[in-house]
Amino acid sequence: MAREKPLPVPDGPQPAIVLVRPQLGQNIGMAARAMLNCGLSDLRLVAPRDGWPNADAQAAAVNARAVVDQARVYDSTHEAVAEMARVYATTARARDQVKWVLTPRATGADLRAAVRDEGPAAVLFGPEKQGLENDEVALADTLIRAPLNPGFTSLNLAQAVLMIAYEWWTAEEASPAVKLVSGRQNSGRAARVEEFDNFMARLEARLEAAGYFNIPEKRPAMVRNLRNIFARARPTAAEIDSLHGMVKALWEAPKVTRRPREQERETDD
């Protein structure tokens, strides 16, 4: 019998995702996909409406089916979180309970600290139609509320799981917020200041020879404006080479004799 391929989940502790009385197998499967996208695999189900196992959940999970297959099922929410040191509950409604309320963004870092320093943690998600009951919310020490459109805060179950799982993942994910990607090796390297300065010096010299700076006192501001135009584009080294070639081609191109109609239009203007 072939050995199952292990789940691609990073080492280290992670929070459990607890779906309380989920109603649709498809939503469970899509929630499992969202979890695995973000390095989570501990899926717990409390009294799923259509029973368990569920073929629709397995089909919707696609390549995250292993998360569904190893999901643990409980009769009550209390059982699902019995060993947890921290419990978070997602809710869109105000509750008559005094609790800390975090945004999903703040939850990511808080969850990371909790599982690292305090012990196992879980995030509760209520059923699709009515959400968690007050007694289930009471099991949590912290609430999570997303600052969405006040007139429409409803989320699909898998969307809600993805929102929290994504913030968990990115809280310690090292990818830069912005980067330049190029299909060619080394062509995406940002131009160095020296390379940029060489291009600007060449462009300025050509423009000077062409009579562009015809008002001397305005020249410094005109040069700064040109520099800012190109600097905003943040050119790569390869693009600076292309700009050099463009300036060279324009400078060396023979003067084009304008056609009579163009001359007449200029005179009319």
Automatic annotation (TrEMBL):
<keyword id="KW-0949">S-adenosyl-L-methionine</keyword>
<keyword id="KW-0963">Cytoplasm</keyword>
<dbReference type="Pfam" id="PF00588">
    <property type="entry name" value="SpoU_methylase"/>
</dbReference>
<dbReference type="InterPro" id="IPR004384">
    <property type="entry name" value="RNA_MeTrfase_TrmJ/LasT"/>
</dbReference>
<protein>
    <recommendedName>
        <fullName>tRNA (cytidine/uridine-2'-O-)-methyltransferase TrmJ</fullName>
        <ecNumber>2.1.1.200</ecNumber>
    </recommendedName>
</protein>
<dbReference type="InterPro" id="IPR029026">
    <property type="entry name" value="tRNA_m1G_MTases_N"/>
</dbReference>
<dbReference type="GO" id="GO:0003723">
    <property type="term" value="F:RNA binding"/>
</dbReference>
<comment type="subunit">
    <text>Homodimer.</text>
</comment>
<keyword id="KW-0819">tRNA processing</keyword>
<keyword id="KW-0489">Methyltransferase</keyword>
<dbReference type="InterPro" id="IPR029028">
    <property type="entry name" value="Alpha/beta_knot_MTases"/>
</dbReference>
<comment type="similarity">
    <text>Belongs to the class IV-like SAM-binding methyltransferase superfamily. RNA methyltransferase TrmH family.</text>
</comment>
<dbReference type="GO" id="GO:0160206">
    <property type="term" value="F:tRNA (cytidine(32)/uridine(32)-2'-O)-methyltransferase activity"/>
</dbReference>
<dbReference type="GO" id="GO:0002128">
    <property type="term" value="P:tRNA nucleoside ribose methylation"/>
</dbReference>
<dbReference type="InterPro" id="IPR001537">
    <property type="entry name" value="SpoU_MeTrfase"/>
</dbReference>
<keyword id="KW-0808">Transferase</keyword>
<comment type="function">
    <text>Catalyzes the formation of 2'O-methylated cytidine (Cm32) or 2'O-methylated uridine (Um32) at position 32 in tRNA.</text>
</comment>
<feature type="domain" description="tRNA/rRNA methyltransferase SpoU type">
    <location>
        <begin position="16"/>
        <end position="166"/>
    </location>
</feature>
<dbReference type="GO" id="GO:0005829">
    <property type="term" value="C:cytosol"/>
</dbReference>
